[in-house]
Each structure stands twice: as C-alpha cells, then as structure tokens.
Design goal:
Length: 406
Amino acid sequence: MSIHDPDQRVQKGEGRHAAPPLHQLAAELTATQMQLQTMRKTHANTVEALQRAKEYAEQIIATMRESLLVLTPDLRIRSANEAFYGHFQVTPEETEGQLIYRLGNHQWDIPHLHTLLEEILPNNQVFKDFEVTHNFEQIGRRTMLLNACRLDHVQFILLAIEDITERKQAEDALHQLNQTLEEQVVLRTAQVQSLAAALTLAEQEERRRIAQILHDDLQQQLYRIQVQLLTILPEADSDPRVAAHAQKVHTWLDDAIRITRQLTVELSPPILLEEGLTEALGWLAAQMTASYGLQVSIRAVHAFSLPDEDIRVLLLQLVRELLFNVVKHAATDQAMVELQFDEAGALQLTVSDAGCGFDVTQAMANKTSSFGLFSVRERLALFGGRMDIASTLGQGTSILLTVPLS
C-alpha cells in the first residue's frame, strides 16, 4: 500500500465533505474582519452621535427658562436644569438620585403630583398644563403649570414646571378690577336710573304745579274778567263800535279759557293718578283725535297697571311724542298703539302707522331734524330701555319701545 493512499482515499471517497481551501478561508476571514471594522466604526459613530445629541439636549435643557426635571421610571431625579436649582433653591447634590417626593424636605410630596405621575402619566404619553398650587418651604406659596412627557425609548420622564404665580396674581387682580368695574357700572346705572326716575317725577310734579296755577289762578282770573265783561255788554249795545270790541274781547276770553283748560289737562292728566297705562293711553288717543284728527287704535291684552308712576308718566310722554310725529310727518290720519310683555317680562309698546315712512339711517344721522326721536331714545335709555325703528318709504313706520320693569 502506498503512503499516499490516505490522501487518495480522501480524494476518492470523501471529496464532497472536504474542507475549503486555505486561500478561501483566508478570504472569508478578511471579509469578516472588514465587516467587524465597519460595524465598530458605525457603532463608534452612533455612540458619538448619541453623545452629541445627549450633550445638545442637555444644553437646551440647561438654557431653558422653565424648570425641567429628568426622572427615571421609578420617579427618581436623574438631572435638573439650572432654572430648577435657582428657582426652588436646591443644589444638584441634594437633588440628583432623590425620589422626587422626598426632594427639599418633602416639599414636592404633593397629592396632585402623585396623581399625575402615578395615575395619569402611566396611561398617557403626556399631560399638559396641569395647575398646582402649593406652599414651598423656601419660596412660599406658588402656583405652577406642570407638563410631563414619557420618553419610552430612553426610559425617562421629562417634567417641565412653569411658575405662573405672578401671572395668576395679575389675572386675579384684573378679574377683581373687572368685577369692581362691573359693580361700579351696575351701581352707576342704578344711580342714573334712579336719578332719571326722580327727574321724571320732578318734571311731572312741576307740570302739576303749573297746571294747578293755570286752573286755580289764571282760569279764575279769566272767569272774573269774563263775568265783568258780561255785565257791561248790555250797556255797550248803545254804541256799535264798543259792542263790537267787547264781543271780540269776549271771544278772546273764551279762547283763552279753553286753551288754559287744555293746557291744564295736557300738563297733568288726572287719569295718570287714577287709572292704569292702558286707560291713560286711551285718554291720549281721544285727545289726539279731538285736537289733531288722528284716529288712534289701542291694542292691549292686559290691563298694564304699572305701580311706578315714573314709568307711567314716561311712557305716556314718549307715546305722545311719537303720535305728534305721526301728525307732523306721516301724512296719515290713522295710527296704532300696541302693548305686550316680552319673554323676559319687559314691557313692549309699539307705535305704528301706514303713512309715508322715512329713511331711518338718514333721519338718525341728523339730530336737528330728528330731535324728537333722539329725545325718546335717550330718555328711554335712562330707564334701561331701548327703541327700535322699522320704516319703509311709502309703507309706513313701526317704532318699538322696550322697557324693563324690574
């Protein structure tokens, strides 16, 4: 047997299981080494990039004005920024590694913070703008907004703390100021309305006084003159010229007495003291018909007996002013006055006509020509009421007066 038989046997019988040639193994080893070198380089680059990213993130956190904490999953403080240390007057040595609730002599052991970190955050990726007010040992009572975010890829929790104490104090001060201003506005409004009511009553009282003078003094004097004239009229018959003059004087006296009677009633309608608003408006309608030929219809589903004399006087005066406007400008002899309550319980009084109408915008832009409407609106506003005008040329006008009765 030849000494080369084993090699020949291997070559003949086991050729399909033969080891790779040495040059192939060397090539594979070289390729593997190159891959390892590439992986090491990539790993080094990744580590370097992560380190740079970490340093960059830490620089951002360090320069932020808000207080920031980085917490571990077990709620221990891994790091904090300078804003946190400065604001809450603690040091890194007594902060890092501490359970957040034990920090600063347990001043962060806040029930709301427990709820946020242990109940809300585990079920949510973030929570935002959670307001907490707490008494801190070093800095006193502060109000803060807490924002937190779970950084699951690095197993950290980022907790941002914004101290809004001064802002809250400013907001509270502004709210208090607004409330004070609102109270002052309400008070001043009540004072103005009270003054307006007093002025309306004073005006009506002055009207009564003048009406009383007209009735008790002037009318009586006119009656006396009329009686004296009647006594000399028979003697004047002998002289036609004297008789004619005496008759003229008699006629003038009749006119003067009639006018003073009318003025007495218009200045102080007795019905204002005795009846409700509906009856007073009915009396006014009769007066407008007798004096100006204006036919006024009154529509009311209630008696509208108003206990406040100032409101009754005001509304009667305003309706009279609006009916005078119908007489002067509407070119019609028909008008309607309607009374009702709105849903809020305010009295609504509408004066309407089917006359010529007018341009509301143009009319309200000229205070001189529309003084009556301006007067109605402003006097009504003093009682907290408003006036709404709807008018179409050639179709008529409707003016709604709304007066709160409370």
